[in-house]
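Q: I'm writing up a methods section and want to include an example of the input and output format. Could you take the sequence below and give the corresponding predicted structure tokens, formatted cleanly so I can copy it straight into the document?
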Amino acid sequence: MLYIKTGINRILNNIYIPPRLFIENNIINLSNNEDINRIIDRLYISNISTAMNEKILDENNIIGIVSCISHDYIPLKKRTYRFINCYDDEGFDISQYFDECGAFINSMITTERNVLVHCMYGKSRSVAIVIAYLIKYKGMTCMEALEMVRLARNVAHPNDYFMKQLQDYELINSGVVI
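A: Here is the clean output for your methods example:
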């Protein structure tokens, strides 16, 4: 049953996201486009509408952007992007992106550039990527990182399968073999 639900979610995303991106880029924002939260120095989370708001990106000196949605979009000028094709559903292996995105985020931060991580709502996928970064590069536990993110962004709620992957990632980064 899980695979049927996952398949349906992916089909709906493939139908829904391209027109939404077109509308967001060319017509009107469909959600709050000033929804951005600073997690730590130089690291932010937002939804997709905010990730396309050049005024907000400029105000927060955002140079790097990690996009955690199921489709690429036309990047804004003056930004460095890391697109990861992922879905917010049970059964999706987001952990395959933890190291790549963590390295990208770390390279931005260590060179004193601000970075934004976003998904559609800034609730699950982007939060999972930021938590993985905090685990690996800041030495936090999964729960410490989740609490830190939630203090800054109260809608933060990675899905249960992402949380399991983050807990495994914490063990791997602490030297425990799973």
